[in-house]
Design goal:
The protein is an alpha+beta fold and about 300 residues long. It is about 35% helix and about 20% strand.
């Protein structure tokens, strides 16, 4: 899975990671405190991702970004770092699973049967081909994604979900994550109910040589602008207004996101479990994220 670094590149012009095929990953089942490979129709409970070979410690990067999102109050997939035969991987808990009651087939009947929750990414939900997952390739942008939520949710939940969606985009802007395209946002479907899925697949470009703040682009436009260096308070207000949110309230939420990030970055990057794996990279990521957050704060003034 982790043997062909040449498959991953970064498109500096369009500001996106590119991959020939799909990122290496596979499902694991966590049962009775042990990791297992699910077989047949047994659902997995976690996804193991070794990271992108040509991007150093990208598994650590993804874990740090997901942890930062959660600490900032966003709903994001839970993750941990694991070591398997000398390889570092991020292990992401599947949010599209739940345990159904008690199951006597497990030791002591202490763990329930794992059940799948149906999930569709926004390309699937909007009948858009995966090859068009980026907005500038004709894929879904915030207007069509928000409209989908309004069609399938009542007024209050729709507004809350649209705010969550825009805050997710703001977080990707904050950490300079270029790959938050329409396949990296999803909805969960269960019992006739629709809900925006937690954040997943977030990694910052800031610690890598490819990163240029002046040219880096988001996967989706914010009030007509892709470039993170050009997106400021006026863009967040305009995007919020166009999506039916209070522009001043939303701009305040973005400001709070930015203001609260620095101490959380310091705490996360002081984790000895991470430092024991690659201390130089963790320090590089810490410094790069802090510099990016400072730039984001300046753009909001």
């Amino acid at each position: 899975m982790n043997t062909d670094p040449s498959t991953w590149t970064f498109d500096e012009h369009n500001g996106r990671f590119s991959l020939a095929g799909a990122q290496a990953k596979f499902g694991l089942l966590r049962q009775r405190g042990e990791w297992m490979l699910p077989t047949g129709s047994v659902p997995s409970t976690h996804i193991l991702k070794p990271g992108i070979p040509s991007y150093r410690a990208s598994a650590l990067n993804e874990h740090v970004c997901l942890e930062l999102a959660r600490r900032l109050g966003l709903i994001a997939a839970r993750s941990r770092i694991g070591r398997f035969d000398g390889e570092t991987a991020v292990i992401v808990e599947r949010y599209d699973r739940y345990r159904l009651g008690e199951d006597a087939s497990t030791a002591g009947g202490s763990e329930g049967r794992v059940v799948r929750i149906h999930q569709e990414d926004f390309c699937q939900a909007l009948s858009v081909m995966p090859s068009q997952k980026y907005e500038d390739d004709g894929g879904p942008g915030l207007p069509s994604m928000a409209a989908l939520l309004r069609r399938h949710l009542r007024s209050g939940p729709a507004r809350d979900s649209i705010e969550r969606l825009l805050l997710a985009v703001a977080f990707n802007w904050l950490v300079a994550a270029p790959d938050a395209h329409a396949k990296n946002y999803s909805v969960l479907l269960a019992g006739g109910q629709v809900a925006l899925a937690p954040l997943y697949d977030i990694a910052s470009l800031t610690p890598y040589p490819d990163y240029r703040a002046s040219t880096m682009r988001l996967a989706q436009k914010v009030a007509g602008e892709y470039r993170i260096a050009e997106i400021g308070a006026v863009h967040w207000r305009r995007e919020a207004r166009d999506r039916g949110l209070d522009p001043d309230e939303f701009a305040t939420r973005v400001e709070e996101l930015v203001a609260k990030a620095p101490p959380h970055i310091e705490e996360i990057c002081a984790d000895q479990d991470l430092l024991s794996i690659d201390p130089d990279f963790v320090e590089t990521l810490r410094a790069a994220l802090q510099e990016r957050v400072a730039g984001a704060a300046s753009s909001l003034r």
